[in-house]
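Obj.: predict assembly geometry.
Materials: sequence records (below).
Method: joint structure prediction, all chains together.
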Amino acid sequence: MSEREHDIAVIGAGMVGAALALACAANGWRVAVIEPSAPEEPIADSEPDLRVSALSAGSESWLRALGTWPAMQAHRMAPFQRLAVWEAPSGPLASVPGGRLLANQARTEFDATRLGRDHLGQIVENRVTRWALWEQMGQTPTITRFCPASLKALEQTDNGATLTLESGETLETGLVVGADGANSVTRRLAGIGTSRTQYRQQAMVINIRHAPPAQTITWQMFTPQGPRAYLPLPEADGSAWGSLVWYDQPETLDDLMAMDETRLLARIRRTFPLELPDPEAAPARGRFPIAREHAHHYARNRVVLIGDAAHTINPLAGQGVNLGFQDAAALARSLGPASPGADPGAMDRLTAYEAERRPRNRLMMDAMDLFYHLFSNSTPPLHLARTLGLGLAGRVPLARDRVTRYAMGIDDHLPAPIESLLKRLA
Ligand SMILES: Cc1cc2nc3c(=O)[nH]c(=O)nc-3n(C[C@H](O)[C@H](O)[C@H](O)COP(=O)(O)OP(=O)(O)OC[C@H]3O[C@@H](n4cnc5c(N)ncnc54)[C@H](O)[C@@H]3O)c2cc1C
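Observations (raw structure tokens):
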């Protein structure tokens, strides 16, 4: 290692950047973390946070390996044992009694017990994960947190990089990791372009308090206007809670955002399926723009991108942070353990990371779009089967099953025929 104070500078202590910093420190690297705002400590029994993530089994194992999981569990999280996806009957079907039955035939459901597991995933408030990672970084002597601080300028040379923070302070490092989210300043300063598709549908998240009992199922119903999803939240203040995700046209979401709580609750009751436990209050709501965006390169001359700085994905199946954790784990593996003279910014380490992660992230982006089309009832099964080259309409449910398992993070891989089909379609 060189005489500089920090081998690696991580820009952004969101969930992904903070987890990477801990993994690198565990490998003996000296890490600087630059973050504009420290996470707030979660308050016991407070109303659940609006921003939550469905963490997959893979993310759970990695956070366990980092030693962060027990602190997250000590706050709170909501495991889900079942996951269901179906399409709502549309057109004349919607108003006949048998319509619901037909919709149920297109229902795909997974149960942890049948897969030999305790749970399929955990819904965790982002502030719980961020706080646990932040605290752990504070207890790690080889991590230096710069906060509040943000990256302003970057100079890359063959031998290292110089960062200038908004405060004017400068730092020398061997590698800069851009973990600063979808609007990454690191990516812009490194001159890395992106391909971007703005989805017409946008997402709104609403936290509801509902009639007990607390749920252990997460579900998603596709309607012609867009999906409606329910995620169980941890119990708080003696009540059951859930997070609703409502995808729709921007104008509809404008109306919903402007409604008072009584009208919003009435609209939720009308629009969501009977599976939704009766909502009693909807104290928090927020809107999030959704876009598919992929950096043209993940690595360039002493700079590497991870998490949302490298890719944003349709949040339909909630895989954004799970992919980010996979990036962080792969980068930590490529960097390997620190040793005298080891160069963390050596291009062969960074290209190994990019070669592993870029195709996997691209595949998940494509799978997410396929998942959407397999459930959105705007395309009849026979037409879909032909378009996808599946031969028979009867193969659609099977493909749907496997793509759902992958998109929801239950399976790590797609069956080879579907993976090669996706590559051809892409
Ligand atoms: C509605 C919605 C629902 C979602 N649900 C899920 C889900 O269920 N499961 C899931 O896996 N994912 C989900 N996602 C996606 C997930 O939230 C993101 O993929 C994840 O938060 C990305 O983490 P990150 O650490 O890469 O980036 P971010 O969370 O954006 O963190 C970036 C960090 O960088 C810091 N930063 C910014 N600029 C600078 C700068 N100049 N200098 C220094 N630091 C800077 C920020 O303060 C922040 O802390 C959802 C997204 C949306 C919109």
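Conclusions so far: The pocket of flavin-adenine dinucleotide is lined by residues 11-17, 34-37, 53-54, 150-151, 179-181, 185, 203, 205, 288, 290, 307-308, 315, 318-322, 324 (CB under 6 Å).
To do: check interface contacts against the pulldown list.
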